[in-house]
């Protein structure tokens, strides 16, 4: 339970420290006072350093009172944890310049995640090469032009993700086998007076319905794509922030 604090203090055995081992515990307290806390003057540490003395527990009890530890001698784990916390604070105070620019691992991961989530954040949208490249892609993919090149690039990304992935291409390449249709079950709604013409009209009507369905599907896809672009917060690179 003390590994992280012991590691931060460069203790020689952070993973194997056992505060229940009396000899190891006493040696640890001496090391902590000598190397990190240094509450006593060197000449006043004699009783604490004499770990083989029968009076050592009394010396330790006096020590934790002198450093204002809120726990009692019997609460060994809590006392050790508190002393380690004190040592870490003192260590930081002695080396403030060393640690002031340090970034916690969690913060680094958060920054990396943010960069991954918004890969377009560092692009120079005013670069002529960037504009030319976006325009060439938009023309190639037949995407509607927009005054904001970043918006066009996001539209390109959506199209590529939804239509040009390997799965999407494989699915589009699959041949569609038609299903047999019983024309007699579909009412035409009018009579031309000619059985052949009636049948042709029924076929044309079914084909028209299929075209309408495909058109509706494309309209729905377009709506989803537009909503995705509109819902995406407007990025103002000049201000260096994201927001509407």
TrEMBL record:
Q: Which InterPro entries match?
A: RTRAF
Q: Which domain of life is it from?
A: Eukaryota
Which Pfam families does the entry mention? RLL
Q: Which PANTHER family match?
A: CLE
Similarity remark: Belongs to the RTRAF family.
- What's the protein here called? RNA transcription, translation and transport factor protein
Q: Which organism is it from?
A: Bucorvus abyssinicus (Northern ground-hornbill)
Q: Organism classification, top ranks?
A: Eukaryota, Metazoa, Chordata, Craniata, Vertebrata
Name the gene behind this protein. Answer: Rtraf
């Amino acid at each position: 339970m003390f590994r992280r604090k012991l590691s931060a203090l460069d203790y020689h055995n952070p993973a194997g420290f056992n505060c229940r081992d009396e000899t190891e515990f006493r040696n640890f307290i001496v090391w902590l006072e000598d190397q990190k806390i240094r509450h006593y003057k060197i000449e006043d540490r004699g009783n604490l350093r004499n770990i083989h003395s029968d009076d050592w527990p009394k010396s330790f009890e006096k020590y934790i009172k002198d450093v204002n530890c809120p726990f009692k001698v019997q609460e060994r784990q809590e006392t050790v944890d508190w002393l380690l916390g004190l040592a870490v604070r003192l260590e930081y105070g002695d080396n403030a310049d060393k640690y002031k620019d340090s970034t916690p691992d969690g913060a680094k991961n958060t920054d990396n995640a943010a960069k991954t989530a918004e890969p377009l954040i560092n692009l120079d949208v005013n670069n002529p090469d960037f504009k030319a490249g976006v325009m060439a892609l938009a023309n190639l993919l037949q995407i509607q032009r927009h005054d904001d090149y970043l918006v066009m690039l996001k539209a390109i990304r959506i199209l590529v993700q939804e239509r040009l992935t390997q799965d999407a291409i494989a699915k589009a390449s699959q041949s569609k086998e038609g299903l047999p249709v019983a024309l007699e079950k579909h009412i035409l709604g009018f009579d031309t007076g000619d059985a052949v013409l009636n049948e042709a009209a029924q076929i044309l009507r079914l084909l028209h319905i299929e075209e309408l369905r495909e058109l509706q599907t494309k309209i729905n896809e377009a709506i989803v794509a537009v909503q995705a672009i509109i819902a995406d917060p407007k990025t103002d690179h000049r201000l260096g922030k994201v927001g509407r």
